[in-house]
Amino acid sequence: MNQKLDSDGIGNQNRMNIFMKTKYTLLALLISLSAQAQVETHFAIPASVLDKNSTGIFRSFCVETRLFVAFNGKSGFSSVTNVKNGNNTPVYCEHTEFVVLSEEQVPALPLDKKSSGIGRILTLGNNKFMLYTSRSGANDLSQFF
């Protein structure tokens, strides 16, 4: 197929191919840029010294007026959950900045060879949380009503 070239040496079909490739490349770039997570703010969690008989720390804290609880285990695993009311709405607190409200050591318990982990019920006010810690030290923290 003979294609008539313009004065710049590019034919109409080639010009259209270049235009379409450029268009799709720019579209893909815009989509990937808009899908990236943005860090709005950050805060440092204060360090704590664990008792030798503790498995980790159970904390409550405020972030942007919302109440959260976290468990930070001795093995390095952590779990965080947003505290909610019985109707599944967030529990609010007075602080807009990051503030630790409470901190409790969670006692270590012996794990027999037949068990894969330990479940504990933790309370904060009227709120109950299930903390499951596996033999490997991984944990999960969930609120229940």
Brief summary of the model shown:
This protein has one helix at residues 12-34, and strands at 54-63, 66-73, 78-82, 99-107, 117-124, 127-134, 139-144. With 145 residues, the protein is α+β, with helices and mostly antiparallel strands. It has 2 domains: 1-38, no CATH class; 54-144, no CATH class.
Radius of gyration: 27 Å
The helix/strand class is alpha+beta
Question: Please, how many domains?
Answer: 2
Strand order of the largest sheet: 3-2-1-4
Query: How many DSSP H or I helices?
Result: 1
End-to-end separation in angstroms reads 74 Å
H/E order of the elements?
A: HEEEEEEE
Keywords: Signal
Protein name: Phytase-like domain-containing protein
Organism: Zhongshania marina
Signal peptide: 1-37
Structural overview:
The structure is a single chain. With 145 residues, the chain is α+β, with helices and mostly antiparallel strands. It has 2 domains: 1-38, no CATH class; 54-144, no CATH class. It is built from 1 helix and 7 strands. The protein has one helix at residues 12-34, and strands at 54-63, 66-73, 78-82, 99-107, 117-124, 127-134, 139-144. It has a 4-stranded antiparallel beta sheet, with no helix packed on it. Strand 1 and strand 2 (66-73) form a beta hairpin. The protein starts with 11 loop residues before the first helix and ends with a strand. The mean pLDDT is 85. This is Phytase-like domain-containing protein. Keywords: Signal. It comes from Zhongshania marina. Residues 1-37 form the signal peptide.
